[in-house]
Amino acid sequence: MAQQLQTTTRATGALGKIAWTAAAAVPLAFLAIFFVWPVGAIITRGFVQDGSLSLAIFGEVLGETRTWRIVAQTLWMAVAGTLGSVILGIPGAYILYRCRFPGRGILRGIATVPFVLPTVVVGVAFRALLADRGPLGFLGLDGTTTAVILAMIFFNYSIVVRQVGTLWASLDPRMPEAARSLGASPLRAFRTVTLPQLGPAIASAASLVFLYCSTAFGIVITLGQPGYGTLETEIYLQTRVFLNLPGAAVLSILQFIIVLIAVVVSNRARRGTETSLKLGEAKDARLGRGDLWPAVVTFVTIATLIIAPLLALVLRSLQRGGEWSLANYALLTTSGSGFSGGATVIQALEHSLKIALDATVIALVIAVPLALVLSRRTRSRRFQRAQRLIDGAVMLPLGVSAVTVGFGFIVSLQATVPQLAMSGLLVPLAQAVVALPLVVRSLVPVLRAIDPRLREAAATLGASPSRILLTVDGPFLARGLGLAAGFAFAVSLGEFGATSFLARPDYVTLPVLIVRLLSRPGADNYGMALAAAVLLAAVTALVMTVCEKLRPRGAGEVTGW
After folding, report:
1. In CATH, what number is assigned to the domain containing residue 391?
2. Where do transmembrane segments lie in this chain (predicted)?
3. Closest alpha carbon to 152 in 202, 79, 204, 261
4. Is 142 part of any domain?
């Protein structure tokens, strides 16, 4: 009997290894085909000329002064956006996650809104705020680098607030209190006790913000950055306007190196954050006089940097010729002036919804087995190393420019498998690749919250690996799928970089159409772009609100998504 039980256990263990190998292999194969191959094709374009290995194009591109000015501007804008987000986000994290006051939940929700908005909407909102006829038009910031940096801070503020705030809420308050009792000032207690504990979360958030700022294509395009843009906008111009594919490939390699460094830093800092979060929950304190300055910074930031652009967008969309009107919304069923046919805004929204639904399904099918593999706690060092490698591979699409992904799809898949391009599947596949890291990141914390002893108890009672997966992991996974689906759908709905390359002229998405409307002269086109941006923001917010209701308490907070 004992021998039969031992044989059964070995067979079960062998089947389990095969199952886990397959769970990792299928998603990795997806990434290899739809991410590594396209990006690799871009890299190859930079090294291979006329069928032979050559570095001549590298010398040409890297020898141009324009290239280094673009690299410098990309890094400068990313650093400025990161510093602004961190400096403003740390007080916000303290006030919104450590202090208790009426309306805190509402302010948390408002602070979270920018991250789920499409970048095109963010750009249009700041144009509405800073344009000549906008509320802050007198500042003269329309079309400047400052406007782009402010939009970057708007978009990434919530990352710092949520990631740092979640850790801050879990810190033991007795340590800074002990420092205060020994004579340390509040500032010194924060600098010597609290700040070192928050270090991993701040580093992780900053690296993610830098990554997003360095690939903020939609924001830069819609705000009309003059002169030298960013690496992403230059890749777009070299590909679409100048048809210089080798030069664009070299720029893509430069950007890939930059974001790869950011991904490595983010992964290391995030592991430190997850370790620190094992400290338990602290009680919130009432908002007091000592919290005056962080409270002022937080309330002013939310009012001027978040609410003002969104409010300006809505109000400008309701104006026509200086008067209140719904004319801009009435035009949404037309193609706009200056167009010879083409999709209307309503048709483009329908296209976006269908494509986003397809991309969400694809992303979830790939992300669920990946999340199960990455969330498994094991003593095997080999398995842990494999988890770290897979985790890094999953994060890469988050860091690699969506423009590079779309460009790579054209160079590799569209050229090799034209039937795939004709079928219309390239757009949802590219959007699924872009959304995949966020989906995995929202599922892994939920699955890591499962007590390993539950699985061990089920195995002791004779449950098979598949039954354990169904009865123990299944309920947790089902609770986390709502938020994961919301992220995938919101990201796909607002994706612009890759879609601008891959969308068929007769099947454009709403973000692509909004940028086209902004590029056309005329009050009708600009008014339609404003109204379309409001519509896209409303649909995205509605989707995320519904999915957020399905989120289990505390899930998705570890990484700050």
Report:
1. 1.10.3720.10
2. 20-43, 75-97, 109-130, 136-157, 198-221, 241-265, 292-315, 355-374, 394-413, 425-444, 476-503, 526-547
3. 79
4. yes
